[in-house]
């Protein structure tokens, strides 16, 4: 691929030197990692929170980079290139290096499944894309989902590792899109779109046939700084990535949903609304909880339907509506989509029934890690509770501290027992995090600073009586804890720059719960 062709299509800044000879240069690949540079590559120096790509321009040049893309206004001295390298390497100064990188990556790694849908929102993304994947599958399509749980087909994972990020980096994403189509024959892809990925232009070069909006509640303010910035990041999915003639499925019960719907309708995009009965095109008329899930009576484009859904919770019923709208909007008949609801697969860590104790008490594991998500899951589980509702949760370290007392207050108001524990403390003191959570409580309900997560689970399980339900919230499908790394003497480890180092240790809530029930069901702990 010639540099001039790339520049004509995606460049918007200055090219140095700008000449016919420069435009005719061949580019054989693109990367944002100087370690991956090969002869003839384009290296994109992305800005980062801890490291700046400009620091690696010299390394990229030494490994054979043909061109280097840097932010507009970058001085020559900041590149660290020798005089000889400055003569040989073409410097591309662009307004947004991240977006430029994503679009060029799409050029080198073309191809995509025929139908792609994406879902954004604070909560519900993972469940919705998995439900959509299953509904497409019931219609006979070769389909996968991509997001927090990694790359998944129905009932199985196609990778041993999770994504780590809800949305992959630009190059990885474009490589996967092409390979899914060419090598694996995937025709339908349902994927999550995080606010970080949208803000960082990781989805540049990808257009979607349909997009969904679930909700907007407080989260990630340590990154976005304000709810308005957070909302605008999510809006990019609708304003920048939805194809002409595409479809938007929007939760109009959520206050932000009306804004999303109005913005999309102004562009003559079809909108399917879901939420409140009598106002939205898709709505839950009645929900009847039972042990294995719930009976849903639905209103779908004015017609009434009844279906058995094998998942629990009011919020999962709304996620089903979003998936239903996306499925129907991309060609699945209403009758086929409704029938598919009864055969949905359980979502790991999304109100997952992890165990039932011999006395009949039930234990659910859920990923709820925001105030709104915690409130939703507790409200949703309450109808399944015969006696007392217990909740065990913590808050992550090095993340939005403002939500900690809020979640403590919500847990106290909506449950009968509260067990506060650790949830990825990272570099923070876990004791301090638990105290901040407890600061939002009043003592109106039994509340326990239950210590580290395994110990807390052991205590909470032993306190369960017949008819009780325990919701273990925060980590869901995650099979690790992120903690401060320490040496053999218990002193915190630091990297070469003096920053604290973290480590992942194996820890799955569902697995530990089953281990504890197998080993310690006869032990009891006083509720203190």
Could you walk me through the main structural features you see in this protein, from its secondary elements to its overall organization?
This protein is of the alpha/beta class. It contains 18 helices and 24 strands. The chain folds into three domains: 3-106, Udp-n-acetylmuramoylalanyl-d-glutamate--2,6- Diaminopimelate Ligase, Chain: A, domain 1; 109-341, UDP-N-acetylmuramoyl-L-alanine:D-glutamate ligase (3-Layer(aba) Sandwich), CATH 3.40.1190; 352-520, Alpha-Beta Complex (Protein-Tyrosine Phosphatase, Chain A). Helices cover 33% and strands 24% of the residues. An eleven-stranded mixed β-sheet has the order 9-8-7-10-6-11-12-13-14-15-16, with helices on both faces. It has a six-stranded mixed β-sheet with strand order 17-18-22-19-20-21, with helices on both faces. It has a five-stranded mixed β-sheet with strand order 1-5-4-3-2. α16 links the parallel β20 and β21. The protein starts with a helix and ends in an 8-residue tail after the last helix.
**Could you name the CATH topology of the largest domain?**
UDP-N-acetylmuramoyl-L-alanine:D-glutamate ligase
CATH architecture assignment name of the largest domain: 3-Layer(aba) Sandwich
Write down the overall geometry.
globular
The percent range for strand residues is: 15-25%
Number of strands: 24
CATH C-level class of the largest domain is Alpha Beta
Kindly provide the radius of gyration, computed on alpha-carbon positions and rounded to a whole number of angstroms: 25 Å
Alpha-carbon distance between the termini?
Answer: 68 Å
CATH superfamily of the largest domain: Mur-like, catalytic domain
Summed over residues and divided by their number, the pLDDT gives a mean of: 90
| Overall number of domains | 3
Strand order of the largest sheet: 9-8-7-10-6-11-12-13-14-15-16
**Which sheet architecture does the biggest sheet show?**
11 strands, mixed
